[in-house]
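Protein modeling request. Please complete all fields; requests missing the sequence field cannot be processed.
Requester role: graduate student
Desired output: 3D structure, C-alpha cell encoding
Chains: 1
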Amino acid sequence: MGYRKAILSWLPSAMSFFLKGIILGFAIAAPVGPIGILCIRRTLQFGRFSGLFSGLGAAVADLIYAIIAAFGLTFLSNFLIAEQFWLQLVGGGFLLYLGWRTFFAKVHDKTREIPHTTLLHDFVSTFFLTLTNPMTIFAFLAIFAGLGLYSTQDGYLPAALLVAGVLLGSATWWLLLSEGVTLFRKKISQNTMLWINRVAGIMIVAFGIAALLTLLF
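Delivered output (217 residues):
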C-alpha cells in the first residue's frame, strides 16, 4: 500500500514533466524554417513518408539537444557552444547545397514508390542540418532554466520523461504537417511542382546565406 500511495502521489508530477516536454517539443518544431520547407516540398514530391522521415530526423536531433540540456551534460553543451562558429559554418554551407539541389530537382512521377535509401537520406539530411544549428542547444538550455525544468535533483526519471515528451511533441508536429500537406498533393500539377521546387530552393538558400552572414557580425 505504501508503494501504491507513493506512486499515486508522484504520478501528477511525472505527467507534468511529460506534458511540458510535449508542449515544448511541439513549440520548437512548429516555426516554419528550412526543415519545414524541406518537409513540405518532399511531402508534395514524394509523399507523406518522405516528409515524415524528414521531420523525424529533426525530431531526433532535438531529442539529443534536449538530453544534453535536461541531464546537465555541461561538457557537451560547452563544447557545442565553443564550436558554434564551425557548426554554423557547416550548417549554412549545407543549406546552400540543399537549396541548390532543391532548385534544380527534377519533377518525378508521384506514383513511383520511394525506396528505403531515399527515406534514410531524408532522415539523415534533416538530422544533420538540425544538429549543426547551435541555436537549438541555446533554446533548450534557456527554456529549461527559465521554466525550472532543467534539474535532476529529484532524480533522472523526471528529466527522462521531459525529453521523451520533447521527442513526442516534435514528432507529432511533423506527423501533422506531412499528413496535412498530403491532402493537397494530388492537386499539384507537375508544372506547379517545378515552381515549388524553385521557390523552396531559393528560400533554403536564403536561410543558408542568413546563417553565414551572422558569422560576420
